[in-house]
Amino acid sequence: MIRLIALLLTASAAHAQDVPSGQVVALHEVLIDDVNAQNWLRFRFIAPQIARENGDITYAQAGLDMEHLCQTMALPYMSEYDLSADMIIISLSDQVTEFGATNPEATQFFDAFRVENHTCIWEAF
């Protein structure tokens, strides 16, 4: 079961411009997902610079960005809205996509993190 959380962020707060790669990313949506009796929070970002054509950000660069977004955006968001999660999924897409729908035109990167002591710990996905 997936629930969409109303995004209560202001437009300026939704932009996470200070990521390690220097690319501009924008928070698209936050989803709460029940996966195998675990609570997963999915933070979905738009990151046009990861596009296959005309993009200049590699997966290695984006991986550092996703870890940064987990630590600096997802954890404070969880605290602000009193949310908890067994797993945080950070995804980057070069364009808006419907969650769970196949879009062969889109470039998407995903990373999973568990939270321990207020720190995002990368999990093999």
What does this structure look like?
This protein has 125 residues and is an alpha+beta fold. The chain contains two helices and seven strands. The protein has helices at 11-14, 59-80; strands at 2-5, 15-16, 25-35, 38-46, 87-93, 108-116, 119-123. Strands 1, 2, 3, 4, 5, 6 and 7 form a seven-stranded mixed beta sheet that branches. The chain is globular. The model is unreliable at 4-14 (pLDDT under 50).
Distance between the termini: 20 Å
- The shape, in one word, is globular
Rg over CA atoms = 14 Å
Q: Which structural class should the secondary elements be placed in?
A: alpha+beta
Helices and strands, in order, run as: EHEEEHEEE
Based on DSSP secondary structure assignment, what is the total number of beta strands? 7
Report the sheet with the most strands, covering strand number, pairing sense and barrel closure.
Answer: 7 strands, mixed
Total of DSSP H or I helical runs spanning 4+ residues: 2
Average pLDDT level: 86
Percent of residues in beta strands? 35-45%
Helix content: 10-25%
Low-confidence stretches: 4-14
